[in-house]
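Fold it.
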Amino acid sequence: MKSSMKGGNKERLGVIRLMLAAIKQIEVDERIELDNDRITTVLDKMAKQRRESIAQFDSAGRDDLTAVEQAELEIILEYLPEALSDAEINDLVEQSITATGAASIKDMGKLMGMLKPQLQGRADMGKVSQLIKARLSA
């Protein structure tokens, strides 16, 4: 935050302040100090909100707002763990299916429960969900 202030990067400073405010809000509401896993969850939620906004702005033809949300998303992603590749995600899904013995779409809850801690902040959980549905339907 200090480097953004000194560098005069107002957009970056604004996004960093939004992230800190979201973290602080949870800490105050729940009267706890967040650990790294919980902070990752908060930032992942913020990234998801930006992705949804980008999709809505694109469909409405609002390129100006899409650009703002995309810039915010890129800054938020800098503070999340490195994203997993599609191959790595597929491997984790296959391992989870083997470990749980999942055979139908009814077992999706077990799979998501097992995968979420491993993938939180490192993969778009919506895409993971679609991948699991496609795999279990086949």
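The CA atoms of residues 37 and 134 lie 29 Å apart.
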